[in-house]
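User: For a benchmark we're assembling, each entry needs the component sequences followed by a predicted structure for the full assembly. Here are entry 17's components. Please fill in the structure.
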Amino acid sequence: MAEQPKTIEIEVLRYHPEKDKTPHTQVFEVPFTDDMSVLQGVQYIKDYLDGSLSFRWSCRMAICGSCGMMINGIPSLSCQTFLRDYYPARVRVEALAHFPIERDLVIGMEGFIEKLESIQPYIIPKEPRTPAQGEYLQTPEQLAKYEQFSSCINCLLCYAACPQFGLNPGFIGPAATALLHRYNVDSRDGAQAERMELINSEEGVFNCTAVGYCSEVCPKHVDPANAVNQNKTNSAADYFLRFLSPKGGAK
Amino acid sequence: MNKRRPYVRPMDGWWRKNPYFVEYMIHEATALFVAAYAAVLLIGLLRLAQGEAAWTAWLATLQGGWAILFHLLALVAISYHTYTWFKIMPRTMPPVIVGGKKLAGWVITAGGLAAAAAASLALLALVWGMAR
Ligand code: SF4
Ligand code: FES
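Assistant: Structure for entry 17:
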């Protein structure tokens, strides 16, 4: 016998920039099966109930990082969160916290893209090398230093978990710092000094008050809070050590 | 014309919106008890420097009902502060490599809590020994 279809209520925070002054909630009755994710729930709404609902998604397998939403107030990947875990209660879906809402569940992410650009998220070699010199060699220990921080999928859940970013959107924040750290501790890279300027700046790591929720919600176990806090120590060392350098900290 | 009009949600009451933030705020608030207790001890030192009469008067104040109530409150608050401090500690320090492997977070937390408990017990034993 076929499974009896169950119905769950999905409450969505809607915002239409051309029609609404402020966001408002709308509740939809969505039939679901136990294997349906929250993402599939909102896809059902778009396909059958209200085609104007806007949201981002792509891979639906927790790797593209585009489907982040607040689900019952918790920053989550909607493709990795299941409706059955909320049934029979209503599930509340909202655009990622701390970001401007572009429309419905879509956030504006220019601010993050700018930060990502500013950290120079690529290897800047210590000295120019030609292919003739062969590949870089790296030991497992050297790999272990940055590997975890290279797993970031830019889903921005950590920013939605960071009240300091909410209060000061200029703060470079968890993921960008984790990626910055990923390159700074890579044995092939030579641009630590340049990136440290960002770490030390007004927008840098000292905005962090070690709430730690960013690492809690990260779906890829990047532990961005660890990258931020390790760089507080690095920044302090940077500050004091420059008095010892012959140039006295002058550029 | 550009139809974009991004809506920025207010941050009021942010810390009430998630149990994790509530815990964080309590952690921060209990730090005040740590500071207050440091002040109590400093005043004790000051009274000691002022001579025997001042010192005995200070000791007598500490035995009053309100002082004992404050001590009980401070004990609870500082214990909570200690617990949440060591809970977040693995996130705030560089990785500890033991035998080529990264030490798990819970080991660091457990180690910190054990050290705090041992230090408290040692202090208690010392003071107990001196008082007898
Ligand atoms: S650090 Fe984690 S939570 Fe933050 S963007 Fe990267 S994968 Fe997402
Ligand atoms: S749809 Fe790609 S991470 Fe969820």
